[in-house]
Structure formats: C-alpha cells, structure tokens
Amino acid sequence: MTQNVAPAVRVGIMLVATLVVAALAYHFTGSVLPTESKHALVFQNALLLIVLGSALLEHHYTKPADSVVNSLMGLISLVSVYGQAPKGAWFLVAGYCFLVFLLSVSCVAASSGSHVTGWRENVSKLTYRPAVVFGRARVLFTLVFLSGLWFFYSVQDQITLALVLFWGVFLAIWPLKVPSLITSWFERAKPGSTAVGEIIRIDNPNILRVALNGDAEWAATGPKACTLPNGESQWVVPLYSQFQEGRLLATGLLTEIIYQGASQCENCVFEPEDSSSQPQEADINNALGGGTDSALVGFVVEKSSIGVIRFETLNPNDCYDGMLVWTQVAGQRVYYQIVAGETQEESFSSDKHGFQVASAAQLGTLEEQSGFKKHEWLPAMNTPVFTASDDYEVAISAVKDDDFTLGVIPKTQIRVGGDFSSDYNYHTAILGVTGSGKTELAFDLIRHALEDGIKVVCIDLTAQYEGRLADHNPVDLSIEEETSEELSQKLFDVETGQYGAGAEKKALGDFAEALRDQVTESVKTFLEDADGAGLGLIRLEEISNTKATLWITELYMTCLLKYARENLGESPRVLIVVEEAHTVMPEPNAMGLGDFDSKGLVGKIAQIALQGRKYGVGLLVLAQRTATVSKTVLTQCNTIISFTAYDDTSLAFLRNIYGQEYVSLIPNLPPLHAVAFGKWVRSEKPIVFQVPFDEAKAAME
What we know:
The protein has 701 residues and is of the alpha+beta class. The chain is 41% helix and 23% strand. Strand 14 (404-408) and strand 15 form a beta hairpin.
C-alpha cells in the first residue's frame, strides 16, 4: 500500500503522527513520555510502534525477523502491566504475542542457511505466512493498543475517544492512499519526472527489484534508466513483474551501460527523456557478455553446480531440450545444453510467483577444431544466460576437416564429431529403438572408415547392408547356404543325441575343422587384397538356429583376430560391424541361453572384443536394448552414442556413461537426435546432436 510513497513523505507522516501522540499524552497525562505503566503501554508501547512500523520499518513488507521483534516488544510491554490488568484478558493478549513469537522464531531458524530442504523447508512454509500476517506492527500493536484501552479506560472517557480517533485516522490514510496523493503533488511539481518505480533491492551482481508505481508499464519493449542508491545511473532491461502483497514488484537486469542523461529521481527507475539514446539490444547483450548476435533467455539461480547450471527462463516458449546456451564464467564464454526443465514458485507473503527453471549441463569452452573443453568453475548467481538470436546460428567449427561428423548441435551450425579413424579400435556402440536413426549413422561411419583405408566386415542380420552399400562393391564372405543348413543340423543332432552325444560331437568337430579352414582362407584373401574391395559382408539373416548364429559369429571373429595377431604390423586396420548385436553377442541370462556351449561362445566373442584393440581390430556394435547385449562387450566400448531409448535397463546403463542429467532426456529425444560421449568425440562432456535429415536416405529406407 506504500509502493508510490516517497521516503520523505513517510518520514513526514511519522514525525507528524509522533507529535500528535506526544501532544495527546501531555494533554491527558501531563507528560510527553508518561511514566505510569498503563499510560506507557498505550502511548509509547502501542501507538508509537504502530506509527514507526507502518511508516518506516515495514513500509514494503513484513519479514519473519520483524515479527520476532514485534511480538517480543509486545510481550515486554504487557509484562509491565501484569499486576494491573484483568488476568484472563491479559493472558489472552499475551498468549497471542507469544504464539506469534514462536511462529516467527521457528520460521527464522528453519529458513536460515543457503540450502533449506526437508523438514526445515516444511517448517518454513508452514510458519511463514502466519508469522508475517499476525506479526505485522499495525496488527500486533493494534491488539496491544485496544487491549490497553479495554484494561484501563472507560468507553465514555475523552482519552479513549481521542486515542481511538487518532488510531483510526492513522491506519485509514494508507489504504486510502493519502500518502501516495501527497507524493504525487511533489512529483508533479518536478518538471519532466517520469518515475516508474522505487528500487527496493539489488541482488548481486545485476538483478534489480523494483516496486512499481500504480500505472507504470514494465514490458521488455525497451530498456529503462535507473538511479542506484550510490547515485550512479545505468540502463536496465525489464524482465518480468508480478503482483505481490497488494502491489506490483518488478525484476530488471542491470546492463552496466552508463546512462548519460540527467537523473530524474533518487533510488528509482524512470523513463529516459530521450529515447534515441537508448542502447540497442545487441549492444546490451554484448555488454552483458552474450555477444552481439545473442538473445537473453534467463539468469542463473540457486542450486547450480560446475557440471549443471539452473537458470530462470524469461519466456516459457524460448527453451527446449538440447538447446545450446552460454554464459560468462571468469571472463570466458562457457557453453551448456538444456537437459531438463521444471516449474517452480516463489512465495512472497500471501502471493506466489510462478516461473520455469531450466537445467543445462556444461559442454565447456569451445575451441576451434578441438571441440569442447571442460571448464573448472560455475557462473555467479544472477549471471545472464544467452542463446543465439533468431536470425543467427553459431557456426564455430568444433571438428577438423577430415573428422567424421555425427551431426550438429540442434538449431546451430556447430558440427559434432571427431577422429573416428584414429580411434576406431577403441570400439563404439550405437543404441536406440527401431527407426531412431542408428543404422543410418552406422552406414555413414562405415563409408568414412572405408574412405580412410579401414577394412570393414559387417555381420548383417537385416539384409540391408548389401543394397545400401552397393556403391562400395562389398565382398560376400558368408558361408554357403547348404553349409549353414548342415551346421544347423549337426548342432541339432548334438542337442538331441543320446547321453553324451559322442558320435554327434565328433561329427560336428570334423565339420567345424573343415569349415574353419574355409573361413580362414576367405578372411585371409579379403584382408590381403590391397587393391580389392574394402567391405566384406557376412549374411546371417537366413540362419534361424540361435546357437548356429553364435557359432558362425565366433568363428569369423576368431579368424579375423588370429590373422591380425599373427600379422601384427602388416595386417590392415579392421572394423567389425555387428548389426542386431543382441542376436550375436547376447547377454546369456537375458536370452535364455542356459546351455554351457552357448555361454562359452558368448564368452569367446567377449574375449575377442577385449583383445581386439591391441591388434588393430575395432568393433561397431548396434543394438536396440542394452539388456539383451553382453555387458562385457558394451563396457569395452569407449564411445557410446544413444538415440531414443525407453527401457529401464538401457537407461541405467547409460546413466553410468552420461550421468543422470542426460539420461533424463533420452526417452524424449526427437527422431534423428542422439547423445554422444567417448574416446573419439571432440567433447569432454556428453553432447546432444541432431543428424540432418537426408531425403535421399529416407527414400531408400
């Protein structure tokens, strides 16, 4: 009710009211400061405290600490008349003061400190509103004042009528806005004054809190000027306003750009006289550390950390998952990606302010052609957060010219990728549900590896690779259909033979030895043909026997690894691509493989994955769910790329790779969006990227 009242007017009202109280005391008691306890209770300990509290101490709002002082003063005042007042009524009023004291003390104690959570947060919420409402000076001391009249004076006494009349008039002038009217007389007398509101708080380093005048506008249509308590004038950017405690409270952002015009008021925000001198949005964002092509999206709030910052958003429609934002930390631009968002509310007495808070994980500083490097610290509270303006896309190159490009950071031109060819043998896993884009990314990686001279062997269960990679003239390394059928039959004979199946096992062993020689020769010819095709295909789509699939996979991988080991230094680099990895590298328990032979085959495949790197053999594993893929293989993959995934097992596995922040957004990733992190990706933190849509690829699916 006092948002439009100038400080001088409040002081004037306090002085006039104090003189009136003193005059009434002198008239009725013969002393300006009565010494008798019953008179002191009414004049000094009630009326004067109502005056001081309303005009000066609580002219904006009452804090729990104010309620502590008010209730304690009320109790002390009542103690002085304990022997003179009616006991029942005295205990009733004293009990009210004591209850307010307990509530306000509990609120202050529970809300102290930087992190208020758990039971302390609950206590603070429960006690805040009762403490500040019932502990206001005009409420609590009015009760003390009226009880004093009831205790010691008759209703017909002149002193009672005079004091009630003064009390009623003093309290009535505030809701009637008489002080605001007086303030407006002085403002009209000041030519050219365009005060918007009074500065009530500055949150370090640059957030301004303003109590707006009744008819003032606070929209982000242009900056306003302000005069700070130290006399300095700056431009301020309006952010938002909310109705609280019967008035409009606004939040603005100090720009540190000096206002060159004449100040029109003290400790206030005002409309500049010359709008042509207003700085442009680009100049403001540049001064705040965002750059000339940036747009302000929010400012850092509490509970931020080095790895993840939280910032209050200015426009609910400006942010989205994976969005690139940045802020200044110790003079450096540090990039982040939004990974989560939530709604929050801030209680301010009986009113609430609802807003959105985004969580953004650190990518780090961006170095040309080197990618993102972790930064060792976090931004200060209230630091502005920026993104690219609508007509601008950040185009710094985070990869080298000969790197493999995974995609771009959503809605930017920053390419995400790395030196896959140099670190191919550290193994890579691409995860994601059907249709998310993992196979298309695998095709691109295969082409990149082939162009760099890496021999690629694809274990294909989907029958897609031969057609999609026909331009690279793939060599068919598969065993003959008749041979695969014979293998399946012999494996079946072993499973269904008599106890021990000795004869069947001997027949399988003889057959396997001949087949191994055949596969060894096929692999050797493929790897030693330097001028021939670099792509070999092993088709397994027609093999229905799970054990046969495992058996053939293990056979080929063993032959590849054996050749690389025996020809170390001379063997070409080899990349083995495993499509539908849950079929050829299953987690035994998840696939129901209870027999020891199958478990042994999976164990051999996993051992090949463990040993392959040192012999120049790398793996590219594609899977829909981690639950069904051998964890021994997956944990050897030093680079993990995940498209959309939903199952808890996959998310739990990825949580150990990416951290909770990124895992929370994986189920909501749009098509062709993924998270990448690992050995060859040029980012020291997980990063969300978007694979550009390719109509030609879509037509081939």
